Amino acid sequence: MTTRDPEVAALLPEAQRTMRRVARTFATAAWLLPRAVREDTELLYLVLRTLDDLVDLEGAGSDDADARLAAAEAWAHDASPAPTRETRILDDLARRHPSLPRDAVADFVAGMRQDLAGPRIETEEDLDVYAYRVAGTVGRLMAELLGAEGPDADRAARALGIAMQRTNIIRDVDEDLARGRIYLPVATLATFGIAKATLATADRRALLHDEIGRADALYDAAMPGIALLRHGRRSIRAAAVMYREILRQVERDGMGERRPWRSVVPRRRKAVLVFGVVLGRGAAG
Under a CB-based contact definition with an 8 Å cutoff, are residues 170 and 211 in contact? Predict the structure, then answer.
């Protein structure tokens, strides 16, 4: 593997702090990666998290957010982007990983633009498109860093990213509602007779049971693809198993019917899951 650009290498401490602060579940699993791959993963996360934060914190109309999204999009299309910290990191990653899928970066930027506009998710298919853009793309980029190739690996990486984003949406449904956002599809809410504006807790068990089933099916589709990775099989399996456990925690917490709830898997339970993966258990997730 080629040597990392010194200016990019200097960003590693910030990248590591960002992952530990924001992506605690994956940061735990990432320690099972070989060091060079872990550092590339941390740098990739810094790029994607920075763009996401620009969208969340600065919002539509921000010159900085618009310019840096445009630069990442231009990089994705190999169109002489304006130099930014993100494009410099992406250049370095692409030099070290020549098959890094640039179209995944373009699709991620499309997801950020969708967030800026306020995503309108009418159907489950719309939700899958949105979840692919903001998370399935990350799975595809990670698959390249971890040495996976071929359509089966790409499909599994997409599925795992979408499953994780759907898990986020299920876990965060009350927090999102408090911010005036709901990512569950309008058509699905109507099927279960739930008013979009309220997500009345008395009606939500059947809805969330259905959504959890959809996420579980995606995890089932994704898990066999982990065997196609050259590096980091235990790490990605651990991340998937820990993330899937959030769904089980939502179920244990009563689907939030008792009160608005953000389900959190206890640290001890995470440790047990990771230990099981290290010992070769937990293959089914």
Answer: yes
